[in-house]
Structure formats: C-alpha cells, structure tokens
Amino acid sequence: MNRREFLETVAAAAVVPAFGRQAPASEWGSPVFDLHFHLRPQPAANLAHLDGAGIAKANLLTRGRALEQVKAVQAAAPGRFTWFNSYDVTKPDAEQVLTQAVKSGAQGFGEMKFHVAADGPELRRMYALAADLHVPILIHFQEVDHSPNEGTWSAGYAKTFESILKAYPRTTFIGHADAFWANVSADYHNEAVYPAGPVTRGGATDKWLGDYPNLFGDMSAVSCNTALTRDPEFTADFLKRQQDKLLFGSDCSCRDGHGAGYDNPAAPRMAGKCVARETLSVVKRSTSAPVFQKIVWGNVNRLLRIPTS
Length: 309
Ligand SMILES: [Zn+2]
Ligand SMILES: [Zn+2]
What we know:
Blueprint: H1 3-14, E1 33-38, H2 43-53, E2 57-63, H3 67-76, E3 81-86, H4 94-103, E4 109-112, H5 121-133, E5 137-140, H6 157-167, E6 173-176, H7 178-182, H8 204-211, E7 215-218, H9 221-229, H10 232-241, E8 246-247, H11 275-286, H12 289-303
Parallel strand pairs: 1-2, 2-3, 4-5, 5-6, 6-7, 7-8
One zinc ion (ZN) binds near residues 113 and 177.
C-alpha cells in the first residue's frame, strides 16, 4: 500500500461507525462521547462504565500491542468504541509501532504520558508523525508529584509549549492533566496538584486555546473538574469562549459509572464519585444546551471525522 492509499484507507475507516448517527440522547439531554477512557481488560467492564454513566461512545486509550483487546471490546458493542494508541516514546521503534496502530484503525496517539520534556526530541518525533498521519496527539502534562518522587510528565508545559504549537501547525494537540488545567489561571506556579480558589484571568491554557487552532482541551480527570468548579463565573465564560475547542472525557476508574471504587488521594472530595458524572454535571449547569452538546458530542466527532448528521 502506498502512502496515498494508506491515507484513504484511514479516512474511510473513520466514517464507518454505525452508532454515530442515531446515538441516544440519554439522561444528559445529548449523546455523550468520552474521549478519555482507559481500556479495561474485560469487555464487559468497559460497557459497565459507559452504560452506568449514560455515555454513548468512548475512545479507548491503549498502550503497546492492544489490537486484539480493542477488537474484542468493539465486537461486544459495535459502533461504541474508537481507540488511540500510545507507546514508549524513548524506544527507537516508537514511530513504527504507532504508524502500524493507525494502519490498524487507531484514530490518534494517546495517552502520551512519559518522563520526557514537552519540547524534547522524543515527543517532537511524535508531533511530526501525528501530523503526517493526520491524527491528533493527546498529552498528559504534569509538574507536581502526587506521590513522593513520582517525577514530571511532558515537563515544561507552561514555559515551552507555545513554541511547540507554533513549530507544529499541522499537528492537532489535545492537552490534558494537572499542568494543562492548572494553567487556566495566570497565577499558577506549580505550587499545588489541584489549585483552588478564584481563577486569575489570562492563564496560558485559556490564551492558547484561543490563539492556536491546533490546540484542543481534554476535559477529563480531577484536573479539569477542579478547574471548572473553582470559579463558577470563570467557568461560564470559559465554556462559552472555548466551546469549539473542548472535548469531554472522564479518565474515570470507577467500576459502574456511579462512583464505585473511585479513590484519588489528592482529591478527597471526589472519593466514591464518578468523575464522568461530576464533570458532565458541572458543564451542563454552567452552559447552554447547544454548547453542552458541542462539548460532549459534536466537537469530538468532528475532530475524529465521524459524521453525526
Ligand atoms: Zn493522564
Ligand atoms: Zn466513573
């Protein structure tokens, strides 16, 4: 297969899903797509979270060789799962493995979560490859330890990532995790995992989402939930302003879509809760129905080129 044929195959694969057109509106008043859902080994465990939280479709985040598992989940619920693939970016065969994953149907790279610099050579190779393959790259940015000596992930976000957005205009970046969301506030200097209190307007993440068409925000995890619950006035403005750049995701590890087994030592307020439900609730009460629908369904379908009408 030559490069043109390969890209056509990728594009064709992206328009196949049967479920996209008639997804049920669900309890949320809109169908919901969870961009950030880590693949669970048992197919039924994946569906238990989606069905429990009222979610129509999810994007499985996988690492390494996962095609057989992905196929098993997709077979158990046709049309409800897309997938991204990740692989150790410090390994020499990273480009080869991720290219093969895209040939096998992966629609993006992620979650990329490694102890390297956000502007270092390992991730730069991936940014270039994602552009060549026309797939987005989802990155975990974190500077502050959750546990002693955890280390940083894609380090240097606030200082260096604008230069990456400029250097790779053809790459679609999806930002995620602590440093990405803490930097909606201009006064953040890596002093807390989940900073609280009123947001100082003009934070790097908010600014860059506005300035760079190639940057999107993954709304998963406690990091985004914290950013959305610390300052309701900011949240209403932010959702309205960035309505085309935000993608709902959960990153929730609860068993049943109702919070069973969820525990995050850095966020006691979330114990026993479902992150998907908590974030869907705050987005829904903070914005209009049309903007909610874009954020939880329309934007991600457009980004992954899945027709919805
Ligand atoms: Zn993450
Ligand atoms: Zn959950």
